[in-house]
Amino acid sequence: MRIIRNIATISGFTLISRIFGLVRESMISHLLGASIVTDAFFVAFKFPNFFRRIFAEGAFNAAFVPLFSRKLVSDGREGAKELAEQIFSVMMTFLVIFVALVVIFTPSIIHVLAPGFVTTPERMELAVTFTRITFPYILFISLAAHLSGVLNSFDRFAAAAGVPILLNTVMISALLICPYTDITFGEGLSIAVALAGTIQLSWLYMACWRMDFRIRFRRPKITPEVKELLKLMLPGAIGAGVMNINIFIDTIIASYLPEKSVSYIFYADRLNQFPLSILGIAIGTALLPMLSRQLKTGEHVKALSNKRLATEVALQLTLPSAVGLAILSYPIIHLIYGLPEVDTRATAMALSAFAIGIPAYVLNKVFITGFFARQDTKTPVKIAVGCIFLNLALNLIFVQYLAHVGLALSTSLSAWANTVLLYLLLKRRDWFSLNINFYKNISVVSLIAAFMGVTLWVIDRNFDVAAMSFLQQLSYVLGQVFCGAALYLILGVGTRQISPSRLKSLFSR
User: Fold this and answer.
1) What is the pLDDT of residues 16-36, one digit of tens each?
2) For the whole prediction, is pTM greater than 0.70?
3) Is the Cβ–Cβ distance between 94 and 230 less than 8 Å?
């Protein structure tokens, strides 16, 4: 049950971070609404976060953790420390140059990121200003991801999992301080992003220092091991970040749609990321170093058992999450963002479409570790490239009929295609397979989740959330969440799909 404990640790800290994130998004929506300022800031904020999710947290961790874990097993702590320092130094040198170039050529880059902004010069100018302020964040958060990989390889997940809390705290502070200064909300949020990066890096550096693993800067040198990392990272950048690339494409297309469309997609995606981060990132982060060590030491039976357990846990948690988020999208959006009625409904429809892909995204995190732990990053990238083109094709079709909602739906469907193909290849290579009992159990879980969704929908039809006060809305949403969770838990335990002993063991830890 060690993997369950690690998943619980990461999920717990991620949950706290996401709660702070919801507070941040709620403040932004109440103070700025959906406007050209939010459109510009969200594009500027997405740009460094796009590279963070794909290269820092996606491709880098997928390549670095197995490499570092292998080095730790073969050469011990000192050999692993030398490797970590070499990679840290090369990363820092490259990123300083990269950030400088992006800041210089930001106007040209924004024309690629949001070409539709050219029709509103003020929005384009704000996007350029905000991007130049926020982009240095990628330097700090990428180095922080490196230190997170080191800590995770030693099964120290808490410090790294708590890092996003710092970003949300700094951004919330900026929103509180801006009214008392001459700094606008957009500028204040942009400055907060860059400042938070330095704080996050310092936090993780101190965590490594406390376990007596002090990373020093060395003269950058492209060693054979650094070359191996880069070789694994380049294809892994697409393989690990297909959903983020799809969201990025969605943003570009949304910039051509009517004003506020970028904000609708951003607000919906932020709520969609709530279960994805708590479950998907937690499971993938906990599973990868464990699988890497077990495959290195020849413990293939344990590796298979842990992966099956992670798959089971992923579906047991994501199916009800996806159903609940889709059914309750309107009251949740109305409560958290407080947008006008038209904007609330537009954002809620996008959220419902995004929710369809939640189980697929989390399963993707489980299945892709089977390739990364064996240092095979080429296969996932081949699948991912195909799914990116599938997403683009679906975007161009659906956007004609569903506008911004079609973009969210395309992302979900391409995520499912990506996940199914990953599993089929794992099974074909005899690296992973699911037995008949698993399919029977998941069929029952799916029926329970569907029954829960119907129950929530029937209840929701009898209430007018828009006519409620804030406290009434809060009570209603919390009541619906509790009702859905209780119903799912009771039926799950009653059908023996959820084990009381496992729950007791988990919560006791």
Assistant:
1) 777 887 788 888 887 887 678
2) no
3) no
